[in-house]
Write a structure and sequence with these properties.
This protein has 13 helices and 20 strands. By secondary structure, the chain is of the alpha/beta class.
Length: 428
């Protein structure tokens, strides 16, 4: 059986958990391969709603082994808080496995994230302030703390001393903050070691052996394509590779293992934080999408920026990720609109541009060119086949499919776990 990657094909918050749930009983492992607790996803099971931030959504599916792989940065306090909260609600979390090579978010990472963002003033990126970027920066600068370091106090202390030598200079002399002591950090991290040890493994070996044994492994990306540090709207991006290629480096499997790449798109578009967003709506249509789609961040609670569907962004995502299937979510949010605009291209300096411009300046100034499609008024939340959708909804989906770069294999028609229309087998 294959390795399957699920990634966001826009700016995040597309509802990747919907696709994970759809595959649930056919998946043996669900792997988080990038990011940290800077993005969340909400999973609705019956009357229960679960907001996850660091844990892969597969932890809610019985029989699935959830894995936090090496490409993730882990706030250990958040990890155990989430596990405790799920246990209290009767969820079995005993199968969770954590990579020994994953990097740790410390107190000084969170502090630096907040003070540097404030220091940027009007040039702020819009980070969540949870220490993600500084932790990845330490990883690249080779002064990071890894999960395995918590099991050797001497190594841990040496690494914390090395990291704080420079950071305290910045905190005290540049940002006018207090210095952070080595003992403070070491004692805090060591307090988790005994609880963490049973969860830790060589997850790269584990996942390769699982694939060798014919197991199906699902790789669940955090954030989304347009927030990828290499391929997104830099610098208004996350600090990791949230595209399909990140699944290989972020987990320790070879890229040849990946056979399916499932891109998740909303039936419209949203983003959180600063940066270009050509189809953004700052009028009553934007408020309609925000309120009806409940577009507020799972992790931050921040109102999301909303806009119409952007086909050039979808095509770009299909190309960058090698998307084999799209899953469209939140089609139901569009119910009640008389007309639905779709961005099919841009105008940049008076010239029509059909693809996402490579120049950040051009993308920032891109004006969307819209094609309008008829809306529908019928409630679609009970539809379970494509034919049960109103004719206008079917035509909207087919039109978007024709201009987005890959087939739309499933369509979310409501927040419930089973509120989905399946057109094609995501594994076939």
């Amino acid at each position: 059986m294959p390795a399957v990657v699920i990634i966001g094909a826009q700016w995040g918050d597309e509802g990747k958990g919907k696709a994970t749930d759809l595959l649930g009983s056919r998946i043996d492992y669900v792997v988080k391969f990038n990011g940290g607790n800077n993005a969340g996803h909400t999973v609705v099971i019956g009357d229960e709603k679960y907001a996850l931030h660091l844990l892969p959504s597969g932890i809610l599916t019985e029989g699935v082994v959830p894995v936090i792989a090496n490409g993730v940065v882990i706030d250990i306090e958040v990890l155990f808080d989430e596990l405790t909260a799920l246990r209290a609600r009767g969820v079995d979390v005993s199968k969770l496995v954590v990579s020994a090579n994953a990097h740790v978010i410390t107190q000084y990472h969170r502090t630096l994230d907040k003070v540097t963002e404030r220091f940027l003033g009007k040039r702020q990126i819009g980070t969540t302030g949870r220490g993600i970027g500084p932790s990845y920066a330490d990883k690249i600068n080779r002064v990071g703390i890894r999960i395995q370091d918590l099991f050797d106090e001497n190594i841990l202390r040496q690494k914390v001393e090395g990291a704080l030598h420079q950071k305290n200079q910045l905190l005290v002399k540049l940002y006018n903050r207090r210095a952070i002591s080595v003992d403070e950090i070491v004692d805090d991290l060591l307090s988790y070691a005994d609880r963490l040890r049973p969860l830790v493994a060589d997850t790269g070996l584990l996942l390769n052996e699982a694939l060798d044994a014919g197991k199906t492994v699902l790789f669940e990306g955090g954030q989304a394509t347009m927030l990828d540090v290499d391929h997104g709207t830099y610098p208004f991006v996350t600090s990791s590779n949230s595209t399909a290629g990140g699944a290989a480096t972020g987990s320790g499997i070879g890229p040849g293992r990946i056979e399916r790449v499932i891109g998740i798109v909303k039936a419209y578009t949203t983003r959180v934080g600063s940066g270009p967003f050509p189809t953004e709506l700052l009028d009553e249509s934007g408020e309609f999408l925000r309120n009806k789609g409940f577009e507020f961040g799972t992790t931050t609670g921040r109102p999301r920026r909303t806009g119409w569907y952007d086909a050039p962004v979808a095509r770009y995502s299909a190309r960058v990720n090698g998307i084999t299937d799209f899953v469209m979510t939140k089609l139901d949010v569009l119910t009640g609109l008389a007309e639905i605009p779709v961005c099919v291209a841009y105008e940049v300096d008076g010239v029509r541009v059909n693809e996402v411009p490579v120049s950040q300046s051009d993308f920032h100034h891109a004006v969307p060119i819209y094609e309008n499609f008829p809306g529908w008024t019928e409630d679609i939340s009970s539809a379970r086949t494509f034919e049960e959708l109103p004719k206008a909804a079917q035509e909207y989906v087919l039109a978007i499919e024709a201009i987005s770069g890959s087939r739309i294999s499933a369509i979310g028609v409501g927040p419930e776990r089973d509120a989905i229309v399946v057109r094609h087998d995501l594994l076939g």
